Amino acid sequence: MAWIYLSLAVVFEIVFALGASASEGFTKPKASVITLIGVVGGIVFISFALKTLDVGVGYPIWTGAGAVGTVVFGALLFKEKITLPKVVCFLAIIGGVVGLKTLSGA
């Protein structure tokens, strides 16, 4: 169940980051509410996941997967560029996430 909670936390983390960008400094009410829902949901679900997972595994996966998802959806929604250096860095993050999941034994 911890991995399901962690996956939900990642989704909320992505919603938070994209909402924060779209809120333009909390000047757009709808995007501001989405941002707040994202941050609360992310914290709630990461805390549920960390009841079982080591913080040294759960937190890096949450932030790493959230970062990659944010960049991908930022490109799709906000037309941000994905360059070769960004792709190389994404692959490093994804490798770290896969390594932590694999080596955690959970």
Largest sheet: none
The general outline is flat
In total, the number of strands is 0
User: Whole-Å distance between the termini?
Assistant: 10 Å
How do the helices and strands follow one another from N- to C-terminus? Answer: HHHH
**Approximately how much beta-strand content do the residues carry?**
under 5%
How many H/I helices?
4
Radius of gyration: 14 Å
> What is the structural class?
mainly alpha
| Tally of individual domains | 1
Give start-end ranges of low-pLDDT stretches. none
On the 0 to 100 scale, the average pLDDT is: 93
Portion of residues in helices? over 70%
Overview of the molecule:
It contains 4 helices and no strands. The chain is mostly helical. The mean pLDDT is 93. Helix content is 82%, strand content 0%. The protein has one domain (2-104). It is a multi-pass membrane protein. Its main location: membrane. It comes from Streptomyces catenulae.
Short description:
This protein is mainly alpha-helical and 106 residues long. Helix content is 82%, strand content 0%.
Draw up the topology in text:
Blueprint: H1 2-22, H2 29-49, H3 55-78, H4 84-104
Helix pairs in contact: 1-2, 1-3, 3-4
From the structure above, extract its key features:
106 residues; mainly alpha
